[in-house]
């Protein structure tokens, strides 16, 4: 396919991506059954799709949680102006059906702020609570959904964007996250990669993360570049 068309399709998919999780409001959610969407993904021939972004660190997975599965709502003091939102497992099932039909390769961005608290301005402290991620990954494995990599957090490194977390805290949490992956994916060869921190590069922060986590915990360091300005 012509490069320009591929890029256009990718841009369309990206525009729709933030709505994938907020599926509780059907009128706003991406129509996963739309034939154009499936065709666009297929046209890339095993397109890698990263599920996550700005609101990923505010998503609760509806597995083993007692509270009702409510969508994101506007709140004045929320991260990026939004409350916590919930990803229902029926939506997750539908997404995986789409990915399997279209041969997409999935990178899933896990909520790395779960259990932490906002100290002041953009600083978040406290320990990551792994319970919800654990249950979600367990559910994903039980359904046989192939996730090729799990990414820990979105843009929480360095100065952060909406929120930032200390590199040492982050390093300790990725150790815990890795041990969850080891525990849940029994066969070592089936174990997906652990990616992080999916944020802006800051040498001191990145080295501190590595020093704390040690070797072989984060399989690939990910960082974001917006060469063309915000959103591009
Ligand atoms: C939520 O906030 C955004 C921007 O802050 C605004 O454009 C939108 O209309 C608000 N939505 C509701 C439902 O209040
Ligand atoms: C972690 O979160 C779960 C809910 O997902 C909650 O039941 C549990 O008490 C939390 N653990 C801590 C240490 O806060």
UniProtKB/TrEMBL annotation:
<dbReference type="GO" id="GO:0004566">
    <property type="term" value="F:beta-glucuronidase activity"/>
</dbReference>
<dbReference type="InterPro" id="IPR017853">
    <property type="entry name" value="GH"/>
</dbReference>
<protein>
    <recommendedName>
        <fullName>Heparanase-like protein 1</fullName>
    </recommendedName>
</protein>
<keyword id="KW-0732">Signal</keyword>
<comment type="similarity">
    <text>Belongs to the glycosyl hydrolase 79 family.</text>
</comment>
<dbReference type="Pfam" id="PF03662">
    <property type="entry name" value="Glyco_hydro_79n"/>
</dbReference>
<dbReference type="InterPro" id="IPR005199">
    <property type="entry name" value="Glyco_hydro_79"/>
</dbReference>
<feature type="signal peptide">
    <location>
        <begin position="1"/>
        <end position="23"/>
    </location>
</feature>
<dbReference type="GO" id="GO:0009505">
    <property type="term" value="C:plant-type cell wall"/>
</dbReference>
<dbReference type="GO" id="GO:0016020">
    <property type="term" value="C:membrane"/>
</dbReference>
């Amino acid at each position: 396919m012509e490069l320009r068309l591929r890029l256009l399709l990718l841009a369309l998919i990206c525009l729709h991506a933030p709505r994938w999780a907020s599926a509780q409001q059907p009128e706003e959610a991406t129509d996963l059954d739309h034939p154009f969407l499936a065709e666009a993904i297929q046209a890339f021939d095993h397109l890698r799709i990263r599920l996550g972004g700005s609101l990923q660190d505010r998503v609760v997975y509806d597995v083993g949680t007692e509270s009702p599965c409510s969508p994101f709502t506007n709140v004045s003091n929320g991260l990026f102006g939004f409350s916590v939102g919930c990803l229902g497992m029926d939506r997750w099932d539908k997404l995986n059906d789409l990915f399997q039909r279209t041969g997409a390769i999935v990178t899933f961005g896990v909520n790395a702020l779960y259990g932490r608290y906002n100290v002041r301005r953009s600083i978040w402290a406290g320990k990551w609570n792994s319970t919800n991620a654990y249950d979600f990954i367990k559910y994903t494995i039980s359904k046989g959904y192939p996730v090729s990599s799990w990414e820990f957090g979105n843009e929480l490194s360095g100065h952060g964007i909406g929120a930032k977390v200390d590199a040492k805290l982050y390093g300790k949490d990725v150790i815990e996250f890795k041990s969850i992956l080891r525990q849940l994916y029994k066969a070592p060869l089936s174990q997906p990669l652990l990616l992080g921190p999916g944020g802006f590069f800051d040498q001191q922060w990145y080295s501190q993360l590595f020093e704390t986590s040690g070797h072989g915990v984060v399989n690939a360091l990910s960082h974001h570049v917006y060469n063309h300005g915000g959103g591009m």
